[in-house]
Automatic annotation (TrEMBL):
Segments passing through the bilayer: none
Protein name from the UniProt record: High-potential iron-sulfur protein
InterPro entries reported in the protein's UniProt record: High_potential_FeS_prot (IPR000170), HIPIP_sf (IPR036369), TAT_signal (IPR006311), TAT_signal_bac_arc (IPR019546)
Keywords associated with the record: 4Fe-4S, Electron transport, Iron, Iron-sulfur, Metal-binding, Signal, Transport
Signal peptide (residue range): none
Chain's role: Specific class of high-redox-potential 4Fe-4S ferredoxins. Functions in anaerobic electron transport in most purple and in some other photosynthetic bacteria and in at least one genus (Paracoccus) of halophilic, denitrifying bacteria.
All residue ranges annotated as the High potential iron-sulfur proteins family profile domain in the record: 29-96
Pfam family, one: HIPIP
């Protein structure tokens, strides 16, 4: 099994980010299912439906998609799923 070195990791991460960005329109259109707390990606990113980090919510994250004010919205980190607007995960980054 090939060991993943730093360069390969950065290439993979960059490609993933570009894919999520370019696929944003499709993600918004297809996001239907609420993200389950036992989803493997949700577990890995410590996602929770109710943020315990002051001032950090999915609704003010750069990855959130869809209409402002909606209780559940699409997210670029979790393709095909919707997240709670008041949720949080470790990938959270403040929206500019």
């Amino acid at each position: 099994m090939k060991k993943l070195d730093r360069r390969d990791f950065l290439k993979l991460s960059g490609s993933t980010l570009i894919g999520m960005t370019l696929g944003g329109v499709a993600l918004r259109a297809n996001a239907q299912e609420k993200l389950a707390l036992d989803d493997p990606t949700a577990i890995a990113l410590k996602y929770t439906h109710k943020s315990e980090v002051e001032g950090a919510y999915c609704k003010n994250c750069m990855y959130i998609q869809g209409e402002d004010g909606a209780e559940w919205r699409g997210c670029g980190i979790f393709p095909g799923k919707v997240v709670a607007a008041d949720g949080w995960c470790s990938a959270w980054m403040k929206k500019a």
